Amino acid sequence: MPERSFLSDILQRVAVGARLSRGKTAVDIGTLCDELLSDKGEASGLATAMQILDTFESLENDKQAAFFMDIANRFGVDETALQSAISGWKAGDDYAARKLHYAAEPKSQELIRRLNRVPGATARLVTMRSVLLEHLKTHPELSGIDTDFRHLFSSWFSRGFLEIRRINWSTPAEILEKIITYEAVHEITGWDDLRQRVAAPDRKLFAFFHPAIPTEPLIFVEVALTTNVSSAVGSILARDRTPINPASATTAVFYSISNCQSGLRGISFGNFLIKQVVSELAAELPALKTFVTLSPTPELRKWAESLAGAELTDLMRESIANAKADIPPTMIAEITARYLLLAKRASGTVYDPVAHFHLGNGAILHRVNVNADLSPQGIKNAWGVMVNYLYDGKKIEANHQAYATEHQVAASPEVRVMAGLPKKLMGDKNV
Q1: Is the CB of residue 210 less than 8 Å from the CB of residue 159?
Q2: For 311-353, what is each residue's pLDDT tens digit?
Q3: What is the DSSP string of 227-289?
């Protein structure tokens, strides 16, 4: 790290010096992008890239949208070069195929690469994409630029570049403050609350970092070491609980997973993080035999109260319509099971985003827990329901494959019966 910091410092000085030598003449940001793509000089290129980033960050919101529109219009595929490559391609010609591949790349991708040469630019580009995602809601024509960002970020933030760190009470305060801010599932109410989650012997917190953004967690997971499969988050977060000796724990409960960077939406880290944490905990604590989540169902109530799902019975619809807050617990459990097993998107994947994530990782839909999260948010989103997904090392790969190829949901007999389905679906060998 010292060598990297030294080199970054030198590059920063070079870029700043070159930028200052250009003077303070106002230049259109689109013109600067043209210059950057045509620039062959290292120092001048760094200065131009820095000026583009500085200028973008100083723009008003509507001007930032105009910048993205300009990039989309001016820096697409070089159609002349592409046509030439298409004409030169023939089956079996590997060189011609590669030439065609590179010719098909839009110039906007190279623009983003060159912007990233500036020291510290990776974090700024992640922020830039978060701005782009906001504008994408009203400007769908910017989807091509977002595809460029996702393509590059998928390489820059691949698993090989990520560093896993255990967050504890000795972690620098700068990072601990960000953990408090980024917690997206169960609010951390202050430093005392955070201490319980990272300093108690039976609580662990792991995060992924990237060397280009060393003080910014990308995603983190909170783990409770217990002697059983937790069915409610209250006992995990209780301040008056008595910690257990980690060596006596038989179960690791992943009770909160938070993505930290909105600009990295759609770049998957969670599957790698969970598997890495399972591996590390299993090596450290041999008594651990069970690895489960205690997960929210964030769209359950919204889905059910829309009364749109054909998965609901007439009795369920009537109960939801007439008594939105007082549905019997047994019916809430049945609604949840049917939602998780039967509600599908057009692609065939399950409707619930959390279920899709865990099932895609090879987990088993293990148990539905009513009255598991009685916080205002838990009641608002899902009548207090939370779900256990079980990570069984012997079945993860088969479950993942079945869901990826056939959208088959691996679920326990208990959940299937709760939903009114057979204990096993025909051909389902994974549960």
Answers
A1: no
A2: 888 888 888 887 655 788 999 999 999 999 999 999 999 999 9
A3: SS----SHHHH-TTPPP--GGG--EEEEEEEEE--GGGTT---HHHHHHHHHHHHHHH-TT--
* Catalytic residue of the set 295, 319, 366, 400: 295
Indicate the pTM of the whole model: 0.86
pLDDT at position 319, please?
85
Domains detected in the chain:
2-156 (1.20.140.90), 160-293 (3.40.630.180), 295-418 (3.40.630.150)
- pLDDT bin (cut points 50, 70, 90) of residue 98 is confident
Q: Do residues 409 and 341 touch, judged by C-beta distance below 8 A?
A: yes
**Is 295 annotated as catalytic?**
yes
User: Residue 258: what are its φ and ψ, rounded to 5°?
Assistant: -125, 120
| 3-class secondary-structure state, position 382 | helix
Which residues make Cβ contacts (< 8 Å) with residue 295, sequence separation at least 6?
A: 254, 354, 358, 386, 387, 388, 389
Residue 139 a catalytic site member: no
Query: Which is the catalytic residue, given 135, 358, 366, 400?
Result: 358
